Amino acid sequence: MRSRRPVGVTILALLFCLNAGVYLLLTGLAIVSPGSLIALLHRLSPSGLGPETIHSSMGRFLPFYYGTMTVVTSAMAVGFWRLQNWARLAMLAMIALSLAFILPELRPLLQAPTAAAMSLTLVRFVLSGLWLWYLLRRSVRSAFRQPAAAEGVV
Fold it and tell me: What does DSSP assign to residue 146?
């Protein structure tokens, strides 16, 4: 009897697919209109917490970064869709990194708190925790270990 793909895993596959599309658009924006890209990143970075600083520091490397991330997130989408355990393990590693990178951001946040920055940090923390809990659940782990998962058949 074949196991069904857990709903949350399907959602993750679709989110990674959407993420790949966003990275593809950012790649195009970085090539065609770098100024518009910087303005967009600034709007996404309340109080300097967010992608603006690190992405702006990449300079001419930015389109290559976005292109690479398009490929990586596309691979993650396919991995989750096909229930490949490497995708689940990679996601767990990304969650751990996200949680680790939140810690150094807490001090500046507490020194000059803004509602937007505090909200963004709280959302990142809560989402990371929820996905970590979900991917470590026994039913999800077992879905990735089914024989059908190895073949990509669900």
Answer: S
Flag whether 139 is in a domain: yes
Domain carrying residue 105 = 7-149
How far is the C-alpha of 38 from the C-alpha of 33, rounded, in Å?
9
Tens of pLDDT, residues 64-89: 999 999 999 999 999 999 999 999 99
Rounded to whole angstroms, the Cα distance separating 105 from 117 reads: 10
How far is residue 110's CA from residue 121's CA, in Å, rounded to a whole number?
Answer: 11
Report the chain's terminal Cα–Cα distance, integer Å.
Answer: 10
Q: Which two tokens stand for residue 21?
A: 């599309």
Cα 97 to the chain's mean position, in Å? 11
1 assigned to some structural domain: no
H helices of 1-154, where? Answer: 7-32, 34-43, 52-56, 62-81, 85-111, 115-136, 138-143, 147-151
Average pLDDT for residues 82-107, to the nearest whole number?
90
What's the rounded Cα separation, in Å, for the pair 11 and 77? 10
